Amino acid sequence: MPSTVKTATARGSTPTDVSPHRPGPVLFIVCVAIFMLMLDAMVVSAALADIRSDFDASIDGLQWVVDAYSIPLAGVLLTFATLGDRYGRKRMYVIGMAVFTGSSLAMTMAGSIVALDVLRVVQGIGAAMLFATALPLLAAAFPDAGARAKAIGVYGAVMASATVLGPVIGGGLVTQFGWRSIFLINVPIGIAMIVLAARKLPETASTPDRRADWLGSLLLTGGLVAAVFALTRSHALGWTSGTVIALIVGGGVLLTAFLFWQTRAGNPLFDISMAKKPGFTGTAVVSIAHMATLMASATYLALFLMGQGYTPLEMGLRLLPISACAMIAAAVTPVIARRVPIGIGLTGTMAVVTVGMWLLGNYGHDDSWTHFLPGMIIGGLAIGALTSLNQAASLTFASQENAGMSSATFATLRQVGMAMGIAVLGAMFSQVATDRAESGLAAVPGIGSVPQDLKDQFVDLVGSGSGHEVVGSVPAQFHDAVPALTRVADSASIDALNALANLGTVIGAAAVAIAGAAFAIDRRRVSRRPSEPASP
């Protein structure tokens, strides 16, 4: 039976049990949790239509089914990482899985859209606890750099596959068993993971004597929630809305106050010295940008395909190339990239993500879904590689006792990037689709006899991504206009998708330039250290 190693990481701290000799169960337990919570971030896209039908929900209510999960996940992730570092990551994992599983069970019994949205908030908090402990648990279980690289590769592959498999699994479950099944499936898996974690996970609290920075937690959480909320609601309310502007200003003030406080706190929540490193800036830019471009665009690509008449399951199956390529790349990248500087690896893979984003555009009226295959394959490979590289990079900016804080910082940035991408790309998609639908509708012969409220409904539905499926709700007396309306809806959706791809390409290119410059500065800074010879 493997021996248990006792460690004491700080003066006056209590020794902590760490069992590095049997890391396999740790990897399995962590990967199952990551798969579950990443899946639940994406799986609801296949269920929104049925949820709207059951609860007669508004668009705002449906938007919250997505936002109520991602906002708390981004807002409290770093807080739970620090608490896990202090009180124990095993304890945080078990509590987080219990919260995640319990809220999933409660959602299967939700009787209204409001109840469902509130429970999604609770589920997002549980997901934040699990995210906060994942990489630190792996770092402790795999102290050897080579073994850790392989474990992170598996972790990255699981994360990448769950993100894109969400629509496939969700579509199958909704089609066969109804929308409540997408939450019910979490319950038996969650219970099994709680039991397994209690028995097999070693405790890895590394700073048990560290006092919590409650003021820092409050400032950070408030700032992130306000900022992410503003980004996710900007599409519905408009960027010039007083509410959105107030949230952006409020979030900026709170985050500025957080950074100021971290320079003076006795036990800071965030090691501000990390942010002073140009390499940190480069990694942060890539963390945000890959989620804000290709990953966020996958949501609208799914919406576009369903608007073309594909069922949720058929849509999900057509997105499988992204998942398959991401899984392969994430698994092999840590082995291949061990000799490549992390800055070159991150910048290069972000450049490939941008190429994949560009290839998704230029969709023509006569094209089929196979037009997207090159972009999905190339982009999927880059996303998988970048996921693994990003996980590895997140562990290089802090000591092992602060591994939770460091990894959670970049996980938070990825969630913010996803929210930012959905908001910005969604605003572009909706604006172009709405404008094209209005102009196209005005040119349809005989449209003047159609009541204005029906025309407004048509434009709104096309702007929300319904595609030519919108013609299914056309009243019987206007069926002669269905072919013309179908052409208008198709043209508007295609133009909107191409505009979205172009914007994502521009964002990706800007991120490559900024990250490349940051890593170049970091390399020059390192090469100029007095203790090292000058660069040739």
Gist of the model:
This protein has helices spanning 24-42, 48-55, 59-87, 89-107, 113-141, 145-177, 181-184, 186-200, 214-237, 242-262, 272-275, 278-307, 312-318, 320-336, 342-360, 373-394, 403-442, 452-463, 482-527; strands at 5-7, 16-18. With 536 residues, the protein is mainly alpha-helical. It has a two-stranded antiparallel sheet.
Key structural traits:
disordered C terminus; mainly alpha; disordered N terminus; 536 residues; two-stranded antiparallel ribbon; globular
Q: How far apart are the termini?
A: 52 Å
Total beta strands: 2
| Oligomeric state of shown chains | single chain
Helices, by number, come to: 19
The largest sheet, given as strand count, sense and whether it forms a barrel, is: 2 strands, antiparallel
Spatial extent as radius of gyration: 24 Å
The low-pLDDT segments are 1-21, 529-536
- The neighbouring-strand order within the major sheet is 1-2
Instruction: Tell me the helix content.
Output: over 70%
Fraction in beta strands:
under 5%
- Topology as H/E string? EEHHHHHHHHHHHHHHHHHHH
Q: Shape, please? A: globular
Main structural class = mainly alpha
Global mean pLDDT: 79
